[in-house]
């Protein structure tokens, strides 16, 4: 009887220990099968970075079942858009940080669960209330929510900033800091010094033309592009999954994909159309833009013999340049010629024309127009300035 009592006592003790807070203001969360930091954060209402810092997690992707996480339960955390992170540096004190970001020491102490001076160590990331920051500095801030597949370079290109600016503004230290669902602060907008973006909000379907490679299967293609097999088959009039052949072009509906969030967002700001010129036929369009006449007919609802007419507006696929190294460029005040942009970026005029479905290298683009500037190796070139017929300066020398 005594032995049974001891066993019962030990069992109750073990159960109790699993829910006893690690500290007065903390609880212990036991990682379950399938858990990620993202869903734990969402379920408990505690920012991912706070969980990482409180538990000294080196690899956020390497949680294991049964792992015990210390979770602060007394802090009323704001939603992600209301804060950002600051890394404590040598010599920092809470008063100086509070003054810099327009908040109070009391606010920082509560938000970061600071108990004593030992909690303020160099390298620690503090949660800073961003709303108070923007009110204090009287600046305009935008927030961007990171999507699956996003990288800093793409985000910087879309919002006309640099990777360095994003890193500094959001105190990003490693790739683990860029997780899906995180809200990034974007650089301050100065309306007096920035041209507005081209007011394009395309409602057209977003297509990509994919050329089938050797050994490709329908299943692998649909998985690669994040679409359903039935969607691909219906759009391309395929009745047999074994029917596809190397070299043929498939139309991929990217707007129905669960991937390529960056490409879909940027595509809506670009001109994905081409206007037919005098005496031009579809084979001419196909040859210049390395496209597919059959696929172009399919997305424009043209039958096999229907001819295009001068001035007709054709829907084009997403520019292949978006899948390579590139820059999203906004034309400056007063407008710019394509050849000037090509010269300044040290790329060929033809590469810019093809990427933006244009044919005239002398085109002057209006201020605020958004274009793609390809930066891959095939687009690069060395421009040389001439004066009186003689080379004046090699821009790259």
UniProtKB/TrEMBL annotation:
Molecular-function annotations in GO: lytic endotransglycosylase activity
Query: What keywords sit in the KW lines?
Result: Signal
What is the top-level taxon of the source organism?
Answer: Bacteria
Q: Which residues form the signal peptide?
A: 1-24
Q: Which PROSITE patterns match?
A: LYSM
Query: Start and end of every LysM domain?
Result: 27-71, 84-128, 142-186, 208-252, 327-373
Q: Kindly give the PANTHER family that the UniProt entry links to this protein.
A: LYSM DOMAIN-CONTAINING GPI-ANCHORED PROTEIN 2, MEMBRANE-BOUND LYTIC MUREIN TRANSGLYCOSYLASE D
- In Swiss-Prot or TrEMBL terms, this protein is called LysM domain-containing protein
């Amino acid at each position: 009887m005594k032995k049974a009592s001891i066993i019962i006592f030990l069992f109750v003790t073990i159960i109790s220990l699993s829910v006893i807070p690690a500290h007065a203001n903390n609880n212990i969360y036991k990682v379950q099968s399938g858990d990620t930091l993202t869903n734990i954060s969402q379920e408990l209402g505690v920012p991912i970075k706070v969980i990482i810092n409180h538990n000294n997690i080196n690899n956020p992707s390497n949680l294991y079942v049964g792992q015990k996480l210390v979770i602060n339960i007394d802090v009323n955390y704001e939603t992600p858009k209301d804060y950002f992170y600051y890394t404590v540096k040598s010599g920092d004190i809470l008063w100086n940080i509070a003054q810099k970001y327009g908040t109070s020491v009391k606010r920082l102490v509560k938000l970061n669960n600071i108990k004593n001076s030992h909690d303020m160590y160099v390298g620690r990331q503090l949660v800073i209330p961003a709303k108070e920051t923007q009110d204090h500095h009287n600046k305009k801030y935008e927030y961007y929510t990171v999507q699956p597949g996003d990288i800093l370079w793409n985000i910087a290109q879309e919002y006309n900033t640099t990777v360095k600016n994003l890193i500094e503004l959001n105190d990003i230290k490693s790739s683990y800091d860029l997780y899906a669902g995180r809200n990034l602060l974007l650089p301050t907008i100065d309306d007096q010094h920035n041209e507005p973006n081209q007011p394009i909000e395309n409602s057209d379907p977003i297509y990509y033309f994919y050329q089938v490679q050797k050994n490709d299967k329908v299943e692998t293609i649909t998985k690669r592009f994040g679409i359903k097999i039935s969607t691909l088959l219906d759009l391309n009039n395929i009745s047999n999954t074994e029917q596809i052949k190397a070299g043929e072009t498939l139309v991929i509906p990217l707007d129905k994909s669960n991937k390529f969030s960056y490409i879909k967002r940027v595509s809506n700001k670009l001109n994905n159309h081409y206007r037919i010129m005098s005496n031009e036929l579809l084979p001419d369009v196909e040859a210049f833009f390395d496209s597919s006449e059959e696929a172009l007919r399919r997305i424009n609802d043209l039958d096999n013999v229907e001819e295009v007419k001068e001035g007709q507006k054709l829907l084009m696929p997403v520019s292949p340049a978006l899948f390579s190294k590139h820059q999203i460029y906004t034309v400056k005040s007063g407008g710019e010629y394509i050849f000037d942009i090509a010269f300044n970026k040290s790329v060929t005029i033809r590469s810019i024309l093809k990427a933006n479905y244009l044919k005239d290298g002398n085109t002057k683009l209006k201020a605020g127009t958004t274009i793609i500037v390809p930066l891959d190796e095939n687009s690069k070139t060395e421009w040389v300035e001439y004066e009186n017929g003689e080379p004046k300066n090699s821009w790259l020398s």
